[in-house]
Amino acid sequence: MSLTRRRFTQILASTLFLHHLPSFAQSVKFWASLTLPEAQNITRIVSAGAPADLLLLAVAPEKMVGFSSFDFARQALIPLPEHIRQFPRLGRLAGRASTLSLEGLMALHPDLVVDCGNTDETWISQARQVSEQTQIPWLLLNGKLEQSAEQLTTLGKTLGEEHRAAEQANLASRFVGEAQAFATSPAANLSFYAARGPRGLETGLQGSLHTEAAELLGLHNVAQIADRHGLTQVSMENLLRWQPDIILVQEAVTADFIRRDPLWQGVKTVAEQRILFLSGLPFGWLDVPPGINRLLGLRRLHAWLDPAINRQFKSDMQHYAQLFWHCPLSDADYQKLVAS
């Protein structure tokens, strides 16, 4: 049975526990199954996916039993407390794409599963099914970048980490607010293409989580399909017609191919070397995953476009590292992360 608005309201009335959480709004900001434990009784949390990994790393690393998607023990690119770096990678909970079985989930004896991303009927239905089968409460948070502060404060209240989450939310609000202000300026009058995949022909459509950071800054996404959001494949003919002002790339293999391929030279932006290559992190700046890591990517892209923000970007990134990674970021480490 499809999860209609009426059915969702019935579920909300009968099975959702919304103690100290924001009220349900038309755009779903969060969804919770079963009865959420009191904050003091939540000591073991399983992350459902990569966006939740980074959100929980920020708000409550002490309560995580591991990461779903990251093995930071093998990566020294970002500063992390050593005990967090040693967290195991457990696998993700993502419907048919899950790599953590229900038996494996139950063996971890979690008090709560936390997920962050899409809150449409498909994801709510998947979360509800797993929660009912395992009898483990599940909290699903809307993963939109502009709602980062709300994600942080909601999770902070749920887990009894209000003070830490409030500091993080303040920084998130500043980054997002200043980006939205920039979006109204003439400097934001640029079009972009976000290149993904080995040949650069995969991209995020306008309105998707994958391109939200650039769009929040007011940049125009050339890849648009009516009533569709998410990833899509495009052709070189599309790109030659679109002629974006800048190209955003996060993978070295993609950047190398675009720079070397003769067909790509027909895109004026490539010929003029207006390719913004963001690398250096063990995850993406603007995507991969579409989590709160994008706050840092949003700020870095903003710094590229705005000299005033560029002058303070190092201190902003060091502040972010202290709040979200719980470690200081030295000047040398900063240079390594932004060297690209």
From TrEMBL:
Alphabetical list of CDD domains matching this protein: HemV-2
Q: Which domain of life does the protein's organism represent? A: Bacteria
An example GO BP is: cellular response to iron ion
Q: Sorted alphabetically, which PANTHER family does this protein's record hold?
A: MOLYBDATE-BINDING PROTEIN MOLA, VITAMIN B12-BINDING PROTEIN
What this protein is called in its record is: Iron ABC transporter substrate-binding protein
Q: Which organism is it from?
A: Escherichia coli
Q: What is the lineage of its organism?
A: Bacteria, Pseudomonadati, Pseudomonadota, Gammaproteobacteria, Enterobacterales
